[in-house]
């Protein structure tokens, strides 16, 4: 039977608090096994819900959804490739199964009516139980004493619940930092913290013999390849098992931010992280030039990391010749006076998972990015100038930090981009 929305309820949600409640209900549904083990269903349902909450449901057409959600070409044949229709049909079945289960009657209802890609929202069914004030009539006789005691107990519980609500203030705006991390926190899967590793010097383009002439030999052959199985010395002193101090500090900050919000996480080095790992959970990438996954996944976005010989810079696809945000790796270490970092939070179309990136042109930029992502004050400042629904959008933030005598200063936002 088709589910119809009463006219008097079509005004829901009418406030920002209502819209936040709908988003919370969406995350609750997507965490359910009916949706959790799929990639297509959550992507489509999340997209149509967010666009409806923003007030632009006119964009929710089959071809538009095929391009925006499933990466189809703008002129694709939707009759030959009915991915949107079949996915929406399966979503409708799963929504019906979800609300058919016990325990969901008191939740907001999110529906996707047949023949439409615009979701409908119904508030929770009002509680028909009389209020405590209607349950306490004058009961003078002793035979009514148990009823009177029960009514008093109900009234006390109601007062306690009201007090708890005023203490917790669920209607109050959430801290901006919590809103930034919400897509990661809402996932039922353990988050993956993937930290960059410096390149193994024994196989790097730079000749190890130039800087390591006094190390035990033979370690490196004339072609730059190993002539013998690596020893513990080559593995740990030269190499690939090491993590830069700046990355380690950033890693600890971000791990602390997740732990403070009750999110379970796992730490892996980028060399031991596979593409399958990125598709199975939300990912936080630490580092840029030393993290291959950062370079690969950010390469198609507006802001990305680029290299030309010893010059590294943050590229803006809208102004590709601008290298003002650059660092020369050939300069003396102590002459570095400013570094740049990039923060990204995107639903990556390749992995279909939420990806957060904190990386810099050098380690100072990475540390500044990590400081930004762990600081409520910086995120609140960003939120004040961001779009109203910024926390539901993909975003990139370009930051700069002063470097004085090898110590980085606080991060400063240069650009913020939301889509």
Q: Helix share of residues?
A: 25-40%
Radius of gyration: 27 Å
* Total of domains: 3
Tell how many strands the DSSP assignment holds.
Answer: 13
- Average pLDDT works out at 82
- Give the helix tally: 14
Shape: globular
**Order of helices and strands, N to C?**
HHHHHEEHHEHHHEHEHEEEEEHHEEE
**Poorly predicted tracts of residues:** 1-9, 128-141, 201-226
Distance between the termini: 37 Å
Report the sheet with the most strands, covering strand number, pairing sense and barrel closure.
Answer: 8 strands, mixed
**Beta content:** 15-25%
Structural class: alpha+beta
Question: Explain this structure to me?
Answer:
This protein is α+β, with helices and mostly antiparallel strands. The protein has three domains: 7-122, no CATH class; 132-168; 179-198 and 243-418, no CATH class. 37% of the residues lie in helices and 17% in strands. The protein is built from 14 helices and 13 strands. The chain has helices spanning 16-30, 33-36, 40-53, 62-70, 83-100, 145-168, 176-186, 208-211, 232-237, 245-260, 275-279, 292-298, 363-374, 376-385, and strands spanning 109-111, 120-122, 191-195, 265-269, 283-286, 303-308, 311-316, 326-328, 338-348, 353-360, 395-404, 407-408, 412-418. Strands 3, 4, 5, 9, 10, 11, 12 and 13 form an eight-stranded mixed beta sheet that branches. A three-stranded antiparallel beta sheet has the order 6-7-8, with no helix packed on it. Helix 3 crosses helix 5 (83-100). The chain is globular and about 85 Å long. It starts with 15 loop residues before the first helix and ends with a strand. Residues 1-9, 128-141 and 201-226 have low confidence and may be disordered.
């Amino acid at each position: 039977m088709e589910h119809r929305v009463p006219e008097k309820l079509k005004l829901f949600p009418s406030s920002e608090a209502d819209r936040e409640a709908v988003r919370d209900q969406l995350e609750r549904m997507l965490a359910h096994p009916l949706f959790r083990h799929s990639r297509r269903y959550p992507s489509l349902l999340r997209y149509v819900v967010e666009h409806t909450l923003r007030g632009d449901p006119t964009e929710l057409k089959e071809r538009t959804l095929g391009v925006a959600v499933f990466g189809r070409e703008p002129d694709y044949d939707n009759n030959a490739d009915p991915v949107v229709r079949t996915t929406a049909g399966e979503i409708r079945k799963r929504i019906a199964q979800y609300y058919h289960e016990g325990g969901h009657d008191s939740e907001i209802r999110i529906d996707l009516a047949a023949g439409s890609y615009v979701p409908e929202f119904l508030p929770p069914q009002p509680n028909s139980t009389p209020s405590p004030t209607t349950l306490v009539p004058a009961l003078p006789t002793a035979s009514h004493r148990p009823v009177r005691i029960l009514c008093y107990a109900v009234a006390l519980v109601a007062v306690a619940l009201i007090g708890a609500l005023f203490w917790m203030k669920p209607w109050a705006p959430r801290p901006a930092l919590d809103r930034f991390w919400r897509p990661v926190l809402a996932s039922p899967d353990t988050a993956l913290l993937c930290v960059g590793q410096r390149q193994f010097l024994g196989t790097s383009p730079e000749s190890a013999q130039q800087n390591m002439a006094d190390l035990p030999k033979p370690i490196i052959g004339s072609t730059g390849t190993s002539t013998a199985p690596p020893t513990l010395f080559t593995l740990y002193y030269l190499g690939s098992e090491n993590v830069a101090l700046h990355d380690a500090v950033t890693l600890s900050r971000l791990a602390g931010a997740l732990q403070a919000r009750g999110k379970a996480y796992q730490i892996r080095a980028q060399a031991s992280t596979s593409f399958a790992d990125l598709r199975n959970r939300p990912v936080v990438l630490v580092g840029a030039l030393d993290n291959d996954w950062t370079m690969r996944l950010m390469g198609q976005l507006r802001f990305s990391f680029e290299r030309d010989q010893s010059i590294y810079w943050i590229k803006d696809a809208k102004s590709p010749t601008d290298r003002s945000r650059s660092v020369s790796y050939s300069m003396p270490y102590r002459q570095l006076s400013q570094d740049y970092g990039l923060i990204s939070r995107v639903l990556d179309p390749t992995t279909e998972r939420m990806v957060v990136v904190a990386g810099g042109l050098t380690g100072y930029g990475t540390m500044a990015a990590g400081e930004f992502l762990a600081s409520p004050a910086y995120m609140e400042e960003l939120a004040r100038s961001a779009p109203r629904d910024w926390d539901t959008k993909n975003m990139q933030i370009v930051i700069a930090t002063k470097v004085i005598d090898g110590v980085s200063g606080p991060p400063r936002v240069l650009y913020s981009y939301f889509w």
